[in-house]
Every structure is written in C-alpha cells, then in structure tokens.
Design a protein that fits this description.
This protein is an alpha+beta fold and about 220 residues long. It is about 45% helix and about 25% strand. The N and C termini lie far apart (about 80 Å).
Length: about 220
C-alpha cells in the first residue's frame, strides 16, 4: 500500500488522496476520516499533563492516531481482519467494551440513598452502628459430633461448664480458649439470635467440621 502524507497546519495532517479534511474532520487517512470528537476522546483518555502545551499535545496525539490508522489499513490489506482469530478476538473485545460501558452507565445513574433510607438501614443493623460492641468471649472448640444424641445433650446445656461436662461425658475432646469479637463482623441473622439469648447462655457457631461454643463474658 502506498501512502502520501503532508501537513496543512500544526493541527491538521492529511494523507492519501487529494480529499481534504472539512467540518468535523481533522484528518483524512487514505480516504478514512479522523474526526475532532475522536481526537478529543483520545486526548481525554491520554490525560495530558496540565503543564504541557495544548497545541503540541494535540499535534502529537493526532500523529499517533494517523500512524495507528495506517497500520490498521495495512493489516486489512493483508487480510488479517478476515481471519478466524481476528473475528474471535474482535467479538471478545466488543463484549468487554459493552460490559464496561454498561457498568459505567449503572454507576453514573445509580440513585444515592436518601437520609431517611440511610437512617432506616442503620437502625436495622444496630450491631454495626448504634449498638456496635466489642465482645470478650470464652469458648469451647471441638470436632462436631455426628451422633444425634450427643448433639442434643450439647444443645441442652445452658452454660459453658455444662456444655464442657456434656462433651467430657461423651468422650469428645475440646479446648478452652478466649477471644474478642467485634459485633459489626457478626452476620445479622446470627447477631439477632445471640442478642435474644439470656446472659451467659452459650451460642454455637459451626465452622467446617468443627464447632465453637461461645459465651459473652463482658462487652
């Protein structure tokens, strides 16, 4: 492919045929227009440093766009745009672009919650806001039994000592530990159940094949 490039001004470069850029066109590259909106979009994405000369930045960006357009034209002339690999990658790039634009639109149009909605949410999550607490816990950690009878005995215990006695009687090994827990990190449904328990009543949190029985000793 043969190209002719000549400069009309610092901000206008035309190549190829004798057709000249007019109106919204800032350059013609072998019959293909580069518009001012395309150029402005490229400048916006390039994030030109504040101190850089605007005309120089515009000229450099336009030249880069022309060079890119020429290379793309050469690739088409070589038939690369008709290859299966190109079509597959083009489809993927188009999908990624559309998904990104959709996500951006949703972010730009997302409605911010009103003050009353914020207050209502905070009121529904006291463990994260108004009643956020740091719990000091005593714990029993043990492998969760598979025998329903043993599980029933453990569940019937109303103190950590009673639970320890039930585990010992059933031959289930356990360890006593202490821990601190921020109520804001507790799932809301679990917090509601714990908040409804009498003082010193243990609550059990299963973690994989193990269980942790907890009692809040201070807040």
């Amino acid at each position: 492919m043969r190209y002719r490039i000549f400069i009309l001004s610092a901000a206008l470069i035309v190549s190829g045929c004798d057709r000249k850029a007019e109106g919204q066109s800032v350059a013609i590259v072998n019959g293909e227009e580069i518009t001012s909106s395309e150029l402005n979009s490229e400048l916006g994405m390039a994030k030109v440093p504040p101190g850089m000369d605007k005309k120089a930045a515009t000229s450099q960006m336009l030249q880069a766009m022309i060079d890119r357009r020429l290379l793309a034209q050469q690739a088409r002339a070589d038939g690369l745009d008709r290859s299966p690999e190109f079509l597959t990658r083009q489809r993927r790039a188009t999908e990624d672009l559309l998904i990104g634009m959709l996500a951006q639109r949703k972010m730009n149009t997302a409605k911010l919650p009103s003050p009353s909605e914020v207050s209502s949410f905070e009121a529904s999550r006291p463990e994260q806001f108004a009643r956020r607490e740091l719990w000091n816990l005593e714990q029993l950690q043990y492998v969760t039994p598979t025998d329903p009878g043993i599980i029933k005995q453990i569940a019937a215990a109303h103190s950590l000592d009673a639970m320890a006695a039930a585990l010992t009687a059933s031959g289930v090994e356990f360890t006593r530990t202490k821990a601190r827990l921020n109520s804001a990190t507790v799932p809301h449904d679990i917090y509601e159940k714990v908040a409804a328990l009498p003082a010193s009543e243990p609550f059990i949190i299963p973690i994989g094949a193990r269980s942790i029985a907890n009692v809040i000793i201070s807040k």
